[in-house]
Amino acid sequence: MDWLLNLPIAGMALTILAASYAVAGVIYLAVTRLAVGERARAFKAISPGMLPPLAIVFALLVGFMAAQVWSDSDRASTAVNREASALRAAVLLSDQFPGEPQARLEELIRQHIQTAVTDEWPAMARRGATLRIVPGALAEALKLSLSLEPHTAGQTLAQRELVASIQNALEARRQRIVLSGSSVNGVKWGALLVQAGLILLTIAMVHCDNPLTNRIILGVFATGSAAAILLIASHSRPFSGAIAVRPTLLLQVMPEGGGGR
């Protein structure tokens, strides 16, 4: 589904709507052709009372899947915000160690952000980022922070907070990489689509003797199910697609060249 999930929202919506209408059309034509003689009487004998339970199960599936994708998206945004805040704090704390240590820390943080934007974000969009790759610049920044020799009480406190900020940034990076691999698995998608198909089939059978009413109800449910599928699909991967977490905040906290702010 990579090609579908990476489409713009308008393209994704049109594709899902077209597929939903196509399935509804195929079901309508198949049931209409089969609804003759004994089969027609059998279709009409199906109780309309089957539709509410099927619709409730469909709604529950949509709710559970939507809760998952929204939670993953929120957690991904939180991880990026936390990483950006920790890096900004590290840049501010580096002021307590002017000269070479400050310049080196800012350069390492700048390198980390550049690597995250140019290398890690495309890999996360492909769900190819792993924790096996150590963030070299941030790891070196942590080592440098631990090796600093404070000469005042203020520098001692600043070093402790600096180390904590870099550790927080490392943990936030780990969380966003883990979340970049999250998605709705095929079993959940299959259950949702099968349930939608069963509802369409039941509608077509119940109203097989009234073609106009049948087409209207099938069209209404096909549109509603397409909207639900679009909602889930557009949020199913936190770092890919039209609605994705971007590295905007990291770029905002990137130290300027030459030790500027």
SSE map:
Layout: H1 2-5, H2 9-34, H3 37-44, H4 51-93, H5 100-125, H6 136-147, H7 153-180, H8 186-206, H9 211-234, H10 248-252
Description:
The chain is mainly alpha-helical. It has two domains: 1-45 and 184-235, no CATH class; 76-182 and 245-256. The protein is 75% helix and 0% strand. It contains ten helices and no strands. The chain has helices spanning 2-5, 9-34, 37-44, 51-93, 100-125, 136-147, 153-180, 186-206, 211-234, 248-252. Helix 2 packs antiparallel against helix 9 (211-234), helix 4 (51-93) runs antiparallel to helix 7 and helix 4 runs parallel beside helix 9. The longest helix is centred in the first third of the chain and has 43 residues, at 51-93. The two termini are 43 Å apart. 34% of the residues are buried.
Q: How would you describe this structure in keywords?
A:
261 residues; mainly alpha; 2 domains
Short description:
With 261 residues, the protein is mainly α. The protein is 75% helix and 0% strand.
Total helical elements? 10
Helix content: over 70%
Largest beta-sheet characterization: none
* N-to-C series of helices and strands: HHHHHHHHHH
Number of domains: 2
Oligomer: single chain
Average of pLDDT: 92
Uncertain regions: pLDDT < 50 for 5+ in a row?
none
Radius of gyration: 27 Å
Q: Span between N and C termini? A: 43 Å
Shape: rod-shaped
Strand fraction band? under 5%
Please count the beta strands (DSSP E, at least 2 residues each). 0
